[in-house]
Amino acid sequence: MDFNVKKLASDAGVFFTRAVQFTGEKFGQVEKTELDAHFENLLSRADSTKNWTEKIFRQTEVLLQPNPSTRIEEFLYEKLDRTVPSRPNNGELLGHYMQDAAKDFGPGTPYGSTLIKVGDCERRLGGAQREFLQTSAISFLAPLRNFLEGDWKTISKERRLLENRRLDLDSSKARLKKAKLAESKAACEGEAVPDFQETRPRNYVLSASASALWSEEVDKKVSFHKLHPPEYTQVDTNKTADKAQCGEVILHAAHELRVAQTEFDRQAEVTRLLLEGISSTHVNHLRCLHEFVEAQTAYYKQCYLHMQDLQKELGRFPNAFAGNPVLPMASGGSSPQGNATLPPDAASAVETDTLKIEEVQAPATGTRKAKVLYDYDAADTSELSLLADELITVYTVPGMDSDWLVGERGNQKGRVPVTYLELLS
Q1: Cβ(347)–Cβ(403) under 8 Å?
Q2: Which residue range(s) make up the domain with 355?
């Protein structure tokens, strides 16, 4: 294994320098390079875009697939680059169960035939939902996921790199500043060669004996230094070397600062371009949002049309909702199956031509009491308006359709629909 010790040591040194700079900034002990206001606004806008996009994406996933187990399974299949197995959704399962139940109960019975029709409608609703989910996943969820897993990761990587470049820049500034301070301190603390001829205060007056002793001591020291000049020469050489070394340190620190400043400016420009691309991201997400709304509108419209068709089909079979057996009819009457296919308005027209309600007389036997289930407004003078929960007397007469009965309430009389009544024994 190729293990570069020098590179490892260099990386460790850079990491340590950045850590020291970062810690100093947190405690307010060192200076920090501040970004301009426009750049800060771009950063704030990018963070806000990421946070809200992530929330919208997660909640849209919940809306389209409420089952968390299914979402996790689909996520795993996607990460493994495998196709998600096709499975029926809830609507399709419900329709399948209804149709199986109709086969068991008998498709010829009112309940069985209705189960078949409702089950078929539920399966169509399930198919519409499946199409809506696929369209939404492609047109809306996929662009949001691409931003979070692609563009945003790139932006985050460049931002981390920019932060490292800034720490390097501030560390270089601190090193240059310390080098200049060290040079100034060395210049101030430098000592000259002592003047042994004049080491006392200028206004100090010695006595004769003290002056003689002082002169003798000075002569000894001067003679000693004349005999040993290399020591002073070595001191001067060391001071010159220290000054040269300080100058080299300053030059090296200045060079590092220029390099760090160049890298920081270059990285700041790259990051700025990526952050300014958030505006294009907003435009793209706006287009995807319009497509999602269109898909949702088409889905609900299709569901509404399916339910309307189902309601019309069920309206042609009102006997399916009656919980009581149909009263016997005269042999001349039409069969229930034949009349069941006629709309109520058509049946009313036939009855109006063949039967005049005011001429109908109640039979001596065969009348029954009935409870009104719902309010009913008479369509014409031949019908009787009803109020929910009231009791009326009903009976049938020859020539009347099986969907209708003659109802009496006091002196009022008229035709009433069977589906609005509960016949009492």
Answers
A1: yes
A2: 326-423
Q: Are residues 332 and 281 in the same domain?
A: no
| Whole-prediction pTM | 0.58
Task: Identify whether 289 is part of a domain.
Answer: yes
What tens digit of pLDDT does each residue of 162-197 get? 998 988 888 888 888 887 877 777 676 654 444 444
Name the residue among 160, 150, 225, 165 with its Cα closest to residue 195: 225
Helix (H) or strand (E) run with residue 132 in it: helix 110-136
Query: How many Cβ atoms from other residues are within 10 Å of residue 419's Cβ?
Result: 16
Q: Looking at the structure, do residues 283 and 335 belong to the same domain, yes or no?
A: no
Among residues 166, 177, 94, 78, the alpha carbon closest in space to that of 129 is found at 94
42/279 Cα distance (integer angstroms):
10
| Single-letter amino acid, residue 375 | D
How far apart are the C-alpha atoms of 108 and 94, rounded to whole Å? 20
Domain boundary among 315, 349, 380: 315
- The C-alpha atoms of residue 74 and residue 355 are separated, in whole angstroms, by 66
